[in-house]
Structure formats: structure tokens, C-alpha cells
Amino acid sequence: MLNQPSLPVNQSSPNYTKQARLIIGVWSVFLALCLLGRGGKLLVPLFPLGSVAVGLFLYLRTPVLYVGYVWWMGFLGSLVRRIIDQQSGYVTPGRWSTASLLVTSICLITLVKYLPKASRQGGMPFLLSLLAVVYGCLVGFINGGRPDLQSIIGLMGWVMPIVFSFHLFIHWQSYPAYRQVIQRTFVLGVLVMGGYGIFQYCVAPEWDRFYLNNIDANSFGNPFPFEIRVFGTQGSPQDFANTMMAGLILILTSNEQLRFAASGTGYIAFLLTAARSAWLGWVVGLLAFLPSLSLKFQMRLVLTLLLMALLVVPLANIEPFATPIRQRLESLSEAGSGDDFSLQERQQGYNDLLSIAVTEFVGSGIGGQGRSLPESAIGGSDSGVLPLLLTLGWFGTLPYLAGIVLILYQLFQTKESRNDPFSSASRAIVVGCLAQVWLNNIFAGDVAIILWGFLGMGMAASKYYADQAMIRPSR
Prior knowledge:
This protein has helices at about 15-35, 40-60, 65-90, 100-105, 110-115, 125-140, 150-170, 175-205, 205-215, 235-250, 260-270, 275-290, 295-315, 320-335, 340-355, 385-410, 420-435, 445-470. It is mostly helical.
């Protein structure tokens, strides 16, 4: 049998589970009452601190629920922060996903605990990528990076996705329980986030208008009903769209009764993001998903897609949704004709950055004061590879990407999981994220949580099924 972690499988006693659900319920009600009572100022310190306290209890007592809690914080944390800011009348320090990153940072306990035996457990790919980020942090400090709140939160945006992924992988024995909680979390999450995305587009609530008026992001649309480019419960259309992309693929593996309602709201909100790169990721992910399944699950998937299309297509052709969706879809044909201004801007950005990026052997580091970039390079900074080279240089980029490549190699070697749609969906989501590497920065922030989270689940599935295959012959 494969080497196993010294801790038992992440199962919790019924008493702890009841306590955990009670604590989550009380915390949620407290937040809701404070927000309804416009007590945002009270929540400026209490929201991140309380979220971490709840997360720490779950981590120690009910590890499976903790994983679901991390995802829910990623889904809703930015929305809660926006409401708090609007009620407080000012933008509180840190990024809008700070509370989510703090809750995820609890996984550092796992890293410290299992680091001595990580390589023996098969965790070397995670350590390679993590060491590359540590290298980037050191270079940034040498280049004059200041250890202020913004730089620390920026560093967490690089580190925490990998640490969370390692946490999921190292507890591979709990893969069935993690699979179940993540699947349920995403189905309900897509329903909630999709519904809010439609509400945001039609109403433009005051906290979202406050947010748009306090950030420099012209691409988010205008703070008026039917003029917002939907960013839903998260901080940007791309972050929201990639979360929905992952959820919409996972829904195809679910038997939950809510899956069709979630698909209806989810696909409409997904299309209203106008995030073409995430649409591309969904298409590529779906193409990677179908061949990886057994014939039985392929037939089921095709039937599910047909039923969802019958539900979504009529909704997408009803105003006020039809016009913005049609216009964005038509812009895909403009990409090949040279009339797409956004694509031209990106291409110009790539050209301006490419000559700089390929000569960056050391990199400017995370939080460091690197060389100044041309103003037209903004399009290029939306990609994944060029900012990776500029930040980590070749010395950091190669080990970072090597870790991802090694994990991918392992994922596609796992044949036993053909009868596990969730494992196949995890691989498809990873492929869908990687398909956007020239269009999105997928290695830091909320998109990186999606990428690394499902890399970790894919590796956990691989090790779990390898262990099962070794046990069966001896029975």
C-alpha cells in the first residue's frame, strides 16, 4: 500500500459536525443581521477575524466542512466586503478577497505539518511551484518591495492557491468525502451566484455601484441597470466567470435535484460576464471532459447537455439578456476579421511585453519594484505567461511550471478514474483554466484557486485510485 499520512482520515464525530453547522449558522445569521441593520462599520474588523475563527474551528474539528467553507468564502467573501465598504462609506484596506485568502491561509498548518514527508507522499510538484513563489518573494524584497498590507495580500494571492491544493492532495484518503462536499457546494454555489449575477445586471445594487465608482476598471461597464458587465459575487468578471465555468462543468457530474435550476441561472450569468476567455475555457474543458469518461457516462453527459440547452437557450434569447449576449457572441467573429479592439489591445500589449519578458532571467519579484512597462502593455498583463516571466523570471517560472506539468502528467496517467465523473471533471476544469493562459492571469488570485484547487483534487483522486488498485488484488 502507498505511504499514508500519519493522521487518520478526515472524518469528524457527529457531535463536532453538529457544532460546526451550528457555528456556521450563527455566524451567517450574525453577518446577515449586521448587514441588514447597516452595521458595516462593526464588520470592518469582525468579518475577517470572525471568518478566520470559524475556519480554524472547522479545520481542527470538521476538516471536510472546512473545505466547503473555503469555497463558500471564495464565492461570497467579496460580495460581503462590498456591502461592508458601501455601508462604511470608504474602501477598507486590502483586496476584496482578503477574507477568503485569510481563511485559506489556515492550510499553512497542513504545509508545516506534512512538509518533512511531502516528497515521499508524492507532493514534490507542489513544493516545486511553492519554492518558485518563495523565490519571487525574496527577489521582490531585494528589489525594494515593502512588507505592507498590499504586498502581503499580493503574496498570499500567489501562495495560498498552492497551499490549499497541497492540503487537498495530502489528505487523499478523504477524497470521497471531499468530492461530495465540493460537488454539493458548487451546485448550490452556482445557483446562488448565478441568481445574484442576474439580479446585479437588472438592478445594479448600491454596493455594486459604490464598488464600480471606487475602482479603475472601465471594462466592468457602467454602474447602471442593464449596463453592468456582470462580476456577480466576486471581484471581476473574469474571476466570476471562471468560478462559474468550473461550477457548470461540475454540475454535469451531479445528481442533485437543484442542478437544472442552477444551470438555468448559472449559464445566463456566465454569458452576461462577457468573459470570452472563460467561455473558451468552458468549451475546451468540455471537449477534454467527454473523452475521459466511460461510454455509460458519455451518454449520460450528452443527454444532460441536451436538457440544459433546452432550458438555457430560450432564456438567453429573452430580453434584457439577449442583446448583450448576442453582441458579445458576434464579437467572436470579429476576432478573425481584425475588427476586435480588445483583441488588438491585447496583441499590442503582448508585443510590448514580449521583448522585455523573454530577457527576464531573475524577474522583478512579487511586490518588487521592477522595470516600468509601456502604457500599451496593459493587454499583455492580462495573460498568464508574460506576467509570470516578469515576476519570477526564468529562474522562478521554470520550476513553477514544472510543478504544474508534473501534476498534469500524473492526472492523465490515472485510468482507474474513468468511472468517476468528478475526477474527470477536475481534469477538464484544469484544462479549461490552462486554455486561457494567453488571455488571463491564471496563476494568482481567484482564478488560481480554481486551477490549483482542482489540480489538488485531481492528484488526490489519482493517489486514491492507485491505492484502491493495490488493495483489490490482495482481497
